[in-house]
Write a structure and sequence with these properties.
The chain is an alpha/beta fold. It is built from ten helices and 14 strands. About 40% of the residues are buried. GO terms for molecular function: ATP binding.
Length: about 290
């Protein structure tokens, strides 16, 4: 469906935001993971035809979207990180406005999408009064107006409360059954249960493209739990990668990423996806050193 071939993006002579990224993507949810500044947003902007790559090609169903951007734009839904609403428009008027821009003339489509994102009861309320989560849901609704094949969402859960985040994840998961959803985030828990593939970026480069199961398997035997006293903790934290520490009475409960048993009280722990990614990052840093 979407093929990214050796794409790079340079800003001036000194800044390379994306460096030689290649990906082949089909329907499903793809989690684009990386810290702030890793190149995620720049890559998505190139896929969305908002900016052109300095080199490389992006193909949608075999067509080069750099040369023919309309081939992508007509089949794309996009929710940027900073999604604003017009202060004087109700949710319904907002959707009608974007429907007109996208050439969608079916009123039933608008009402269906407002129901899909659970905003039909708020359709006549001014969108400017919506909570952050409601605005994100309205943003998804407008992105789906043209029934796109590809949906791109950039940091969609930033600022949402836990209930809104869960609702948003469920909606994204359902959309991924039939569409390609590219979801950029640095919050690993947002994609842990819904992504079929994870594309991990660091300093503009794609360092891994794997399933969550593959990443978890690679971390097998590298995550440890331990309880130590405060003195041993101070020694350990200088020698190993402590992922989590919690004081419990006179002891400190630890989660540690290390290829070997870090201390006598340590035992193997089942890693979370975030812990597995951290273990992978530490291992690559040590190899580079």
């Amino acid at each position: 469906m979407l093929e990214i071939r050796h794409v790079s993006k340079h800003f001036g002579k000194k800044l390379t935001a994306v460096k030689d990224v290649s990906l082949q993507l089909e329907a499903g949810v793809v989690g684009l993971i990386g810290h702030n500044g890793a190149g995620k947003t720049t890559l998505m902007q190139m896929v969305a035809t908002l900016t052109q790559p300095s080199s490389g090609n992006i193909l949608f169903q075999g067509q080069d979207i750099v040369k023919k951007p309309q081939a992508m734009r007509s089949r794309l839904g996009f929710l940027p990180q900073d999604f604003g609403v017009y202060p004087n428009l109700t949710a319904l008027e907002f959707m009608q406005y974007f429907a007109a821009l996208k050439g969608v003339r079916d009123p039933a489509r608008i009402h269906h999408l407002l129901e899909l994102v659970n905003l039909h009861d708020q359709a006549k309320r001014q969108a400017a009064s919506f909570s952050g989560g409601m605005r994100r849901r309205l943003g998804i609704a407008q992105a789906l107006l043209n029934d796109p094949d590809i949906l791109i969402v950039d940091e969609p859960t930033a600022g949402l409360d836990p209930e809104e985040r869960l609702r948003f994840r469920n909606l994204i998961s359902e959309l991924g059954f039939k569409k390609l959803v590219i979801m950029s985030t640095h919050i690993v828990s947002d994609v842990e249960s819904i992504a079929s593939q994870l594309a991990i970026m660091r300093k503009g480069e794609l360092i891994a493209f794997e399933t969550p199961e593959q990443i978890l398997a690679q971390a097998h035997g590298q995550i440890w739990s331990a309880e130590v006293d405060a003195q041993e903790y101070e020694i350990l934290r200088k020698q190993v990668h402590v992922l989590q520490s919690q004081k419990q009475g006179n002891q400190v409960s630890l989660r540690i990423a290390h290829p070997h048993q870090p201390c006598a009280s340590a035992s193997h722990a089942v890693p979370s996806l975030e812990e597995a990614l951290m273990a992978q990052r530490y291992a690559s840093q040590e190899l580079a050193a």
